[in-house]
Amino acid sequence: MDWLTLLPESISFGWALALISISFVTSFITAAMGIGGGVLLLAVMAQVVPAKALIPVHGVIQLGSNSGRAYVLRQQVHVPAVGCFFVGSLVGAIVGGQIAIELPTKTLQILLGLFILYSVWGPSVRYTSSGTKIMSLHGGLSTLLTMFVGATGPFVLAALKPLGFNKEQLVATSATCMLIQHLLKVVVFGLLGFNFADYLMLIMAMIATGFGGTLLGKKVLTSMNEVYFRKSLNVVLSILAMRLLWAGSS
């Protein structure tokens, strides 16, 4: 079988192998650090995947990644918070999909670059309300945002932190919220006419290696130098974001 015929025309075999490998790495990062892998995967994919396909394809891969974490920790999911998040996300996905499909490539590149820089260097989002109802508003806003920039994990996690969850509840509820968000996003882009079939084999391979990265990340969590690792991650993300801003403005 000629594997090249199973890949989209815009992605070479070498780049496909690179993306499959980086899916392992980014899932490892998310499992080991709790956050950051989705943004890094988005930044790397943006260097080769066409802008119009980037957010839908990234969404399917993240759907698979978050599904695994949500299933493993399903008993720790805070259902009321997830329910409120779902209501807002449904509205945000519909509105965001109608807008995102019309944006030109260079605008998407600039938005992605700015979002990545903000997620690395910007202040954390904080909320004064301790009730779960605030999650409806956050679900709508973050899902609207994810239709443009893809990875909104840092924003969702920031909304959950003030609710007083323990570590297991925080990770489980965050993964479930992101699962919902990415699922809605994939459905909306499908209804708007995006053809996922061209990327099916690449998506399946990246989900498979991503699961392997998740398993390894959990095992090495306690032995990792978090400070050094986060600094290195910030540098890589910033370089990739600046490249996107250059491509979008040139």
Short description:
The protein contains 10 helices and no strands. It is mostly helical and 250 residues long.
Written description of the protein model:
By secondary structure, this protein is an all-alpha fold. The protein is 74% helix and 0% strand. The chain contains 10 helices and no strands. Helix 4 packs parallel to helix 8. The longest helix has 25 residues, at 167-191. It is globular, with a radius of gyration of 17 Å. The mean pLDDT is 79.
Our Rg estimate from Cα atoms comes to 17 Å
Mean pLDDT: 79
What is the molecular shape? globular
**N- and C-termini, Cα separation:** 40 Å
Low-confidence stretches: none
Number of helices: 10
Number of strands: 0
SSE pattern, N- to C-terminal: HHHHHHHHHH
Describe the secondary structure blueprint for this structure.
Elements lengths: L12 H21 L3 H9 L5 H22 L6 H22 L4 H17 L12 H16 L3 H8 L6 H25 L8 H20 L6 H24 L1
Task: Please describe the structure with a list of short key phrases separated by commas or semicolons.
250 residues; mainly alpha; 10 helices; 0% strand; globular
